[in-house]
Amino acid sequence: MVVILASVVFLICLSCGEEARVRESAELKRKIATEKNAEFIEYIDSFNLGYKEFLGRSLSAGNIRIEFVPGFEGTKVGECNHGARRIRLDQKFWEGSDEYTRKALIYHEFGHCVLGRGHLETTEGDMPLSLMYPDMYVALYFPAHREEYLEELFTGSTNQFLEEEVRVNLSTISDFSQDGLCEFIK
Ligand SMILES: [Zn+2]
After folding, report:
1. What residues does the ion ligand 1 have nearby, CB within 5 Å?
2. 106 alpha carbon to ligand 1 midpoint, in Å?
3. If you measure from the C-alpha of residue 32 to the centroid of ligand 1, how many angstroms do you get, rounded to a whole number?
4. CA angle, residues 183, 185, 186, in degrees to nearest 5
5. What are the sequence ranges of the domains in the chain?
6. For the segment 93-137, what is each residue's pLDDT rounded down to a tens digit?
7. Residue-wise burial string across 10-44, b where 16 or more C-beta atoms lie within 10 A, e elsewhere
8. For residues 103 and 115, what is the distance between their CA atoms, to the nearest angstrom?
């Protein structure tokens, strides 16, 4: 009896140790990832919060490596390499962009690299109905339709846009000159 009890205790302790090691290793990975991505922590955290709000469970975007490149060729401003779990952003575009444009860009890349989504080119008039639209002019509509875009990003639903009565006045955005594309490498 003593031997059996001792074995049970030993087994329990083994599994405790295993669990702790797995937890430790996950925490370590997250720590390393967030240290590497220090500049982007607030975006990673807010993306994780949005994921939890719309899908009711937690996700860590921290194990994605995010890095700047001085500038891409042509009009590209970001790319996700899904296999390498790496996002590259155009530093010049990033530094010249407002918070909504930055968020639209990095959420777009998280859409590829974390959620595994491709591009969505559906529009209502001129308004893209997804942050997964492959052109950064979607960022113009993001401030006025923040909740709708986040809901679409995490759930894939676009119905919430069609319930909206307020539309962005297109004449106020005709001077938008930034043109940015994204490359999604699967
Ligand atoms: Zn893209």
Report:
1. 182, 184
2. 10
3. 26
4. 145
5. 1-36, 38-185
6. 999 999 999 999 999 999 999 998 999 999 988 899 999 999 999
7. eeeeeeeeeeeeeeeeeeeeeeebbeebeebeebb
8. 16
Which phi and psi (to 5°) does residue 78 adopt?
Answer: -160, 160
Ligand 1 midpoint to CA 36 (Å): 22
> What letter represents residue 157's amino acid?
S
pTM: 0.74
**Ligand 1 centre and the CA of 86: distance in Å?**
13
82: its two tokens: 């899904």
Q: In angstroms, what is the span from residue 9 Cα to ligand 1's centroid?
A: 52
How many Å apart are CA 123 and CA 106, to the nearest integer? 20
